[in-house]
Amino acid sequence: MVKVLIIGGAGMIGWKLASHLAAGGEVAGRRIGKLVLHDVVEPAVPAQAAFEMRAIAGDISLPGVADTLIEDRPDVIFHLAAIVSGEAESDFEKGYRVNLDGTRSLFEAIRRAGPGYRPRLVFTSSIAVFGAPFPEEIGDEFHTTPLTSYGTQKAIGELLLADYSRRGILDGVGIRLPTICVRPGKPNKAASGFFSGIIREPLNGQEAVLPVPRTVRHWHASPRAAIGFLMHAAGLDTAQLGARRNLTMPGLAVTVAEQIEALGRVAGPRAVSLIREEPDETIQGIVKGWPRSFDPRRALALGFKPDASFDEIIRIYQEDELGRS
Amino acid sequence: MVKVLIIGGAGMIGWKLASHLAAGGEVAGRRIGKLVLHDVVEPAVPAQAAFEMRAIAGDISLPGVADTLIEDRPDVIFHLAAIVSGEAESDFEKGYRVNLDGTRSLFEAIRRAGPGYRPRLVFTSSIAVFGAPFPEEIGDEFHTTPLTSYGTQKAIGELLLADYSRRGILDGVGIRLPTICVRPGKPNKAASGFFSGIIREPLNGQEAVLPVPRTVRHWHASPRAAIGFLMHAAGLDTAQLGARRNLTMPGLAVTVAEQIEALGRVAGPRAVSLIREEPDETIQGIVKGWPRSFDPRRALALGFKPDASFDEIIRIYQEDELGRS
Fold it and tell me: How many domains, chain B?
């Protein structure tokens, strides 16, 4: 029986992961005995599970909070908590406090709890660790030169994860998530919001705005693929990783035009007609600095599975969010 | 008139830099008005200079110390201070405290002193940010996957330097120094010590031990070249760097055999005969994980100058340390 801790349990991915664990009852091939969900606001707990569940609210960057979470020695820790890109950029201190100090505080709590305690720690990093200029396809050995404080904090988290793993303090796997698409919920003001919006809004019979040219290419994974990455990372034989604990996750490199074609195939021309082009130079400028595609050979060789197609990404949204099958 | 601050002023490079500044009286094409040397032990101050000099002892990782150093708004800051590789590996907490917290504490003091204050900050990083496996020649876009806590702390310093520069808090240049050779002083127990020892000891009429095969290739720069890098970084037009503030410095990729041939040319066969081969498997194992050569195109294009040859590296030692001309 293993104990599982999810830090960042109130977020979209955290909730989906908790639901997945509650439904399956297993992680890394072992039965779950207990699941603790932590976030700065108290996370919702899945309705049913064959094991004990607990939700805790707190700030891991504050002294002692991480120690409390580590008290009952969780075997598997998913560290998903982060101040997101936009907020880490507008609030310098908060971004560094939560994304850097919070992560370090968690790793230090684990160090203080050892020796003899060495949990599997799955850390969600991001393709934001990369900054332009870069090649059309970014390889596994390309340097991390982030262009945001969020990306900087994630890249630092990766370095700490690798060093603490090398030291035997924890057994870390860092996974650089693609942009998650189709993100459920309401439209938001994030610069990347349109990638999901141009699919989600038409599927809900609403108009969507497309602020960039259709030639823009980007790197996507469905929420379901992301949960698959987390579960696979939790069970991975880390002897295969050597000292390089951080992996670019496989995604789909598709253009906006290809996204829209897929929408047409899955939902018909009426859905496509709800997309309105409204060029936005600011968003175009931001998107220009983003990765377009990767060559994630290591992750593929290690068994991480991308979505099969963008059509599938759309169907996953329909099944998981709109209840269609 | 500019004010200059050297943090790590008691080290070998710090002392040589201070002496160079005292002798020339200029940095970045401007006259120096004041030089402050800081270190954990009070640094020696060069005998003569046409400007005010001050030595301060303290620990920049402690609250308030960096603020005090920033109080009179130095225009150029050389941040050389670090717990070295071996000690950062054996004393985990001290390494992170000085190399990570100390660096961040300096950057934060600068942030608190702004806006309107944005010093040039030259940060000495290291080729220890790279970890095997790597190609025979490491390019400027190769990822940083350090295999020591020291290398991890330097790589984190690079990321912070880039982000604080992007934010306009400071105007940073990070320079990844090659192994410094010929390092003056007594033999030490550092795994890399023999690279200097096999030259320095014979030039001083003493026997030297060579623990690795002569085919071992490594990346070297003289102390004089290192001072050249620091001075060039202090005066660099950083608009040329964009967001990528960290540069691999040019060095010489030479094998131990080539080092010994150069010693023969410069000092004759008697010097060479003082080298005794005594294979050490531990040192050979460590050295196997070290970079052999780089392709430092960016730094060369930006005007950083390597030593002309390993013969010159030996002559620099003779001139600067043995007083020969």
Answer: 1
